[in-house]
Write a structure and sequence with these properties.
- By secondary structure, the chain is mainly α.
- Strand 1 and strand 2 form a beta hairpin.
- It is rod-shaped and about 100 Å long.
């Protein structure tokens, strides 16, 4: 009986440790997921800003380079040449 009581006490102690570890893991997992979601939103925001730069901003910058309604393939500024790709 004493041996069984010692075994039960040991099992209960180990079970309590496992539960504590699982609770700790759960808290850290929640923090990880929260950070991962935040990073995902930031990546999405960066992608949206990139898309605006590559469309609207680029179009607005290239508009003045279009003379008489016909697009130019390139414009020269001194020694530098700007190639337009459409």
């Amino acid at each position: 009986i004493i041996r069984q009581a010692v075994d039960n006490f040991s099992l209960e102690k180990k079970a309590s440790m496992i539960i504590a570890l699982m609770n700790s893991f759960h808290k850290q997992w929640e923090k990880f997921i929260e950070s991962l979601e935040k990073m995902g939103r930031r990546i999405d925001d960066a992608k949206k800003e990139y898309d605006v730069l590559m469309s609207t901003r680029r179009t607005q910058l290239e508009k003045p380079l279009l003379f008489e309604g016909s697009p130019k393939e390139s414009v020269t500024f001194g020694k530098a040449e700007l190639r337009l790709s459409r």
